Each structure stands twice: as C-alpha cells, then as structure tokens.
Amino acid sequence: MLELLNTIREKAQTLLAERRADGVLCLGGNRFNVVQPRLLHKPEEVGSLEIAPKWNLAKLAMQMLRAAEKSYRLAVVCRGCDERALLELGKRNQIDASRMTILGYTCSREQAESCLCARPYPENPAAGEKIAGVDPFADPRLSGLLTGDDGERMARWTSLLRRCLKCYGCRNACPICVCTPCKLEDDLWVERAAVPTEMIPYHLIRAFHLSDTCVACGACQDACPVGIPLMALQLVMRRKLLERYGYEAGLQADRKSPLLMDFDHALPAGLTLPAWTVSSEVSHER
Amino acid sequence: MPGVIAFLCRCCGEIEPTVDLPALRERIGREEGVAAVELRDTLCLPEDRAAILKAFEESGADRILLAACSPYGKVGNVVAKLSAACGNDRSRVRLIDIREGCAWIHRGDPAGATAKACDLMRMGLGFMRHGKQSADAVVSVRPECLVVGAGSAGLAAAGSIARAGYPVHLVERGAAGGGMVKLLSHVYPTDAGAEERLAPYLEAIAENPLITFHGKTRVAAATGYAGDFKIRLASEKGEKNLRVGTVILATGAGVWLPRGLYRYGELKEILTLMELERRQREGKAAAKRTVFIQCVGARCPERPYCATICCPSSIKNAVLLRKADPDAEVTILHRDIMTPGHILERYYRSALEAGVRFIRFAEAQPPVVLGEGRVGRVEVFDAISGLTREIEADQVILSTPLVANADNAKLAELFHLPLDGYGFFREDYPLHPLETRQAGVFICGSARWPVASGEAVTQGEGAAMKALSILGRKEISALSMSRLPEGKLGHARIEDGSCSGCGNCVAVCPYGACALQPVGGVFVSRANKMRCRACGSCTSVCPNGTVQMPEHNARAVGAMIRRAFAEGDAR
Amino acid sequence: MNSQMTDKTPSPRVLVFACRWCALVGADAAGRGKAELPASFRLIPVECASMVEPDSVLRAFASGADGVAVMGCHLGGCRFNDANHVAVKRMEALGDLLDTVGIGRRRLLLSFGTAHEGRQFAEVLEAFFRELAPLSSLAAWQKPLLNQPSFR
Questions:
Q1: Do C97 and A211 touch (CB under 8 A)?
Q2: Predicted model pTM
C-alpha cells in the first residue's frame, strides 16, 4: 500500500517537474490532516498526496478543465471507476481527453468487496497490481435486493425509495450527470416541493438515463444520506447490455452505446414482441 | 390567454347515446380556459364551416378543439381548413376522436365512454396550452444535378436531366463512360452490339454542353441537403467543389469471382461470363464444346439472391456460340432458368430452337468439373431424368452474380445512407422507389439492385424525373419536405443554452439532421431543418429535453399524460 | 362523471402511445370494425414510436397508469426508416429497470403492426388488459394527485 502511494507520488512529481501536466488533481491531506481533493502545482507538493479513501474525482476534473484555459493540462490521480467515468465523459464530449493524463492506481481486495466492484483497476495502472474483481450478483448485498416476485420487489423498493429526501446528492455526486438544466429539477417531470419524492419520476428517470453510461463507481450510493442502494438499479441494466450487445460503459472510447446506434441492424435475439401478424413487409436482408 | 372554443359533434347520432354529449358539454364548459362549448349535429358539411368560424370569432377564443370522428373521417379535412383561419398554425386546432376511438368501441360501457371522452378532451386542452409552431426555413434550389457513375443508369439519368435543361455533373471513377456494358460484346434481348447500344448515350454526354463529364474522379466529401448539396470531387488533377440541388447515385455493381468453386483458377479454360464476353469482343470465344454452369455463388447461404441477369446472359452467349458454329455443342447446366416476361421467355425458347441443351441440377448435387491442366468434362446429375451425364467440354463458363460495388460503403458514409445486408444502397422502402432516406439523393441501376442495362436505363430516367421535381423548383420550404400534402408536423428545435453536446441526437437521427458544432469551446447540437423529417427520435434520447419538436413538445405531452386518468380516479 | 364501480373490479388503466401511421390507423380500423374494448385506456398519437420517451412511460406510471402500450409500425416497415428500432431497444432496457423494482416489464407493451390490421390491434390490447388484470395496484408508487396547481 505504501509502495503504491510512493509510486504515485513519484509519478506525479515527475509529471509536474517535466511540465507534462500543469496541475495534478488528487486527494491530499490539508493542514489539519483531513484528506480532501487537492490540486497540486509544484513537484514538491506531492508529499501531501494521498490515495485513500475512495473519492471520485471525475466530475471535479471535468469542471476544472472547463474552468481553466484551453492550454491547461490536468493529470488526475484516480481509481478504475474514475478512469471509466472520464472515458464516458469524453464520449459525451464533456472533456477533451487530449488535455488529461490519468495516473491510475488499483484498488485493494477490501475496497473491491466494499464496492462490489467487478473491475477494481484502471486499464493501464500507473501503480499497483490488478486483482480479480467481485461478481456483484453473487453477493447477497445485491442479490438480496433482486429476489422475489414482482410484488415482493415492489414492496421492498417502495419502502427503500420512500426514504428519499430529494437532496440531489446522487445526481450531484454522479460523474455522468452533467446536464444543465436537469430534468429532475423540472416541474414537468418531477413534482416540486413534494416529499416523499415522487419515486418513479425521480429515481427511475435518473436510473434510465444512466442505463447505458453508468460506470458503477458507486458515488451515488456513497453520497445518499439515507442509504438507498442506488447501484442495484443500475447493475441489472449494465449486465443486460453486456449480454445483449457485448457492451460495457467506460471501456471503449470509440464505441457509442448500442441504445443509440445500429438501428439498421438486426435486433438482439430473444426479444419477444407480440406482433399483430407475421410481417409481410420485408426489405433487403439485414 | 384568450382561450379555447370547443365543438362537440353528434355525428348524426353515431356518438350518442354511448357518450353523454350534454353532460360532456357541461363538464368541459367548466374547464379553465374554455371560452365556449357548442353542440352541433355535424361538423363536416359545407355549411358547418361557416358556422364554426362565426362562433369562433364571436367567442374571442384563439384555439379550436373539435370532438368528433377520427382524423381519417370527414372532419380531418375540416381541421386543415380551420388551421388556415388560425394563421396556418396547426397547433391551434385539435381534433379529439370520440367516435372510432371511443363511442364505437365502448358501446357496452356508456359511463366509461363518457368519462373517457371527458379525459380525452381535457388532454386535448392541456396539449393545446403548450403546443407551439416550428419556424420554417426556405432554401433556394441549386438547379444542377450530380450523377455519380457513368454506366447505363448514370448515362440515362444525366441525359434526361440535361434534356430537361439543367446542368449535370457526371462523375465517373474510370476514364470514360459506359459502365459494365462497355465490357460486353452484345446486350440481350436484342443482341445489339454493346458499343452500338452505348453510342447514343456517350454521344449525348460528349455533345450536350449542359453535361460536364469528370473522368477518373471520385466524390470526396458531401454535406448539405436537398436543394443545396455541397460536394467535393477529387481527381488526379486536384479537387473541385460543387453545389448541386440533387444527387443521383448510379455506381453500378461488380461481378463476383468464383474463387474456390468448380476449380476456377486451377484448370485452364474455366471462365466467368465476363471473361467470355471479352473473348467474344476479341472474336476468340469459339470452342467446340461449351458448358455453362448457372447459379455459381448465387442463391446460396452467403448470397441467397438471384442476380437476375445471369440466365439471359448465358442464353445470349450460348445462342451466339451456336450461330457462329452450328456444330458447336453448347449446354447450359442450371437450377432454374429465370427469364420472366414474354420477351425473355421467347429468348429462352429461341435458345432451345437454336440447339442449346438445358440440363437441370439440384442445389444439393452440383456438377463436378473434371480435367487435368485444362478442363476435360463436366459430370452432372440430371435432376429431371435421374441420370448422371458426362459432358465433354472445351470451355466451362461460370455464371456468377453481381455483387455490390466496393465503393458503396464510402459513398453511403458520405451521404449518410444505409446499405442493405448485401452492400447495395437501401431504397426508401416501400412506397418510394428510387429514393433513399435522404431527400434529394436518388439511386438507380445496379447500385440499387442487380439489373440489366435496359432496366438500368429505365431506372436512371426514373431517378432523373424524381430529381427534376426538386430541380424545377426555385425554392423549397423545410416544412414542405414531406411526402404528404399537409407537410411535416414540424421540425426539431434545439433550445439555446441547454445543450450539453452529448451527441445522442446526432447518433440516433436516421437522416443525419443533427450535427455538433463547436461554439465557444464546447460542442452544441444544431438541427438542420431541411434534413429533419420530424420523426421525433432525437427528442426521446435527449437527456434533458433540450431538443423538442414545438408541435409535439414534452410539456404538451406531459399535460396529456397527467390528465389522462384524472377523472376516472376512484382512489 | 366518474366511472361507476360495478360488480367487476375496475379495468386496468392503460395509456397507449400510437404512432400515427400504422398504429393509429390500426386503432381506427378497430373502431370502424366496432371492436368492443374496455373503456379504461387513453390514446396519445405520436409521430413515431421512437418519439415516445421512456421518461414519458415512467411519468405515465406515476400519474395513474397501470399499463403503458407503445405501438408502432411493423419492424422493417417504419415510415421513418427503422426509427421504431429506437423504441424497441430503449423500451426493452426500460423493461429491465421496471423488472428490477417490481413494477414489471409486463406492464409495458411494445407492439408493432400495420394499418389494416384493426382486428389484431384490438386483440393485442385485449390480451394486454387480461395480462394486467391480476397484477397488484401501483398505488404504492403513485403519489395521490393532490390539488396542486402545477400541472393542470
């Protein structure tokens, strides 16, 4: 662990010393030794760089790149989930990847189990050894939320989502949620000043919008003050995308979501649509 | 806002008693924003329109809600005419179907039907509060056409357009026009010489000053829309920019080479049909014994289609061989003989009369080519007689299908067109022949699907006619770019300041109407009104509702959703 | 004006989004054929099935619908060049989410046909009603509509 930290510190220092980055976004201790996001500019500052606890920096990185001058190059010290989030943001034209360097580091076994993470590492880590991920569906913390028939699941989820205070913590923490204005603040979709929150419009609209772009970083769940297991809403859709289209968000910079592409192609197998009759309208084979 | 006047139609007794119209009138009259509700026996008769307009003016309302039959009934016409009275703003007149959609299908539940009619009308009122009108755009049409490909189809298209008086840029990747016919010796069914056949078309392009021929040239870039396409051509001599009103793609097809089949390439004197054609041109096609094998690489799992032209082409060559040498033995081994129509049927019979032999084989038992060094004989199981025959052969001709031109993929990308599963340009099926998904871009000839040169000419002229319907106009309005008389519903509109540049709309639009533009360092989407067809796909994938169609925007639909079950709420 | 509670349990409330090419004409044909259908559905015409936002489906469930039907042209026959595939793929993904939380994908009907198939339109809807009837109410999800001025 110390070795990991030292490697990252060295690499950050080199980046700054060689001026390959204008700033390094990372976690760091402040003068009260409280760890928080820091932006380091000088090589000598890397002594305060920290890599724990888990703290997603992708959204902050995006906002910084936006606010800085066009020539500013940012290095980001981050875990695999942040790297994937940054990739998705790049696909959605929110960041210019050419201005960014990623100093990725791997997560520990404990962290992976805590996050139920299937991929606790960046693709090309600057430090650390990749370890095997955890299958979230094999863990009762997730599978327990998905069991039962419709009625049981409905009872479970209504009681969970009823805790919601509409603090917008999940939306704010999520690295992919960047729209301004946001539908969740629009009276058309989610009734204002209504508590308990209208569950379907708020949570299910948000969940669906993220269906093909959530990178399972868990920031939403970490941010929720009332402990709603929001990741469970996303993981099922992620798995279905993998099964049907071989697609996983956060991995391929040049592949857009199958829910936005390839409409001319044949639909995935296994779809049952009650057809009115067998279609006699056939164009050239797909 | 001034308000709505509602008219309920008795439809000559077809709506009552299932729907309680007086109760409906009373209930809707209490709705906020309703200036008046009138009950009439009919709405669709000529005298009704004047009465409706009079009541509309007197009420001080600025919108009209009609509750009557379905839009496909008589009152559908009335709606269009009433919109004219409201400044041609279709968002200010709405028709609610309470007959086909309500009274006629709920005859057993009058209370439910009345509640439904009320909900439907309230949904209509909610919709009209938020419906808006799209701004139109009018573009000038560049009265010039680009034709890509100078084969039979392209030559015919270019000629037609030039004869109609419009300049044509005819782009050809080869040095000269003529296409595949140039490679043939004769064309069927007239057996005219290929050069003779092409001559008038080639003369036309040489002599007509309106046709500019660009040889050894390709299309390098294409943007724009019907009426104004910006094209960049590339050739050895450099680049050239054009602006044209329409584009006709006539890039033809290629011939499939039967590598690995019937010992092609392994034994001498096994030829493709095209190779035979070249020998015919050079006068070297004669052989004592010729065997044609049909359906080579066609009607098989990889290419499960019939390429249309190979049977008549083989028959043509077989008859020419027999005529050149009455002692020549010519056999055609086939699965089926595809010669539709009376001319081709006669052509087929003339082959029989000329002494060509036809032997049928089954797909599961193809013929076997035998020989050492060069072909010697062909063994075939005759599916009709049940006998295995051995045919001595000096040359074997393999009839292979036409396949899509390798350039199609690049052109498809440039013009944002789909290809079908075989690589041919996909037509705007089913009711728009020769058109593609992009307005102003047409396809004809073998680029669209394998055809012989006669049919290619027909299609080329057809595509030219379709292009002329655009070229002949001085201006086109974006809202009129629809195949319906009432035009498009509207077009996509992107709200300033709320687009995050995510590109979802760009990805999903079937017509490539949305594009990201760099604006002040970020990307913002812009919708091209001419290319937009108002399908609404973009509106359903925009994460924050930035792109909307004003005539059917999210607030209007949201109002309908929220009002749908209000009255029926027993909870 | 409220629908009377009869001996039968109230019919499921269905919101139908019908594309105005095939689906709406099919509905019209069902009407002309005088099919008898439960009066508890409401139909919203749209340009294309692709125009129906999954968010609108969710909003419908939140506003009182027991089931939502999205109906369009036959696959391969979309007037807007396969835009109906947009609806299919995205609504299928929405179905996964509905399953996760217990609303169930069975409440979302995706069906495609052609304009002259009026009888079949009626049959598909009737089958949908039958499928919805035994399902438990969504009242637990739906906030009762208070007299809020916000969206009338």
A1: yes
A2: 0.90
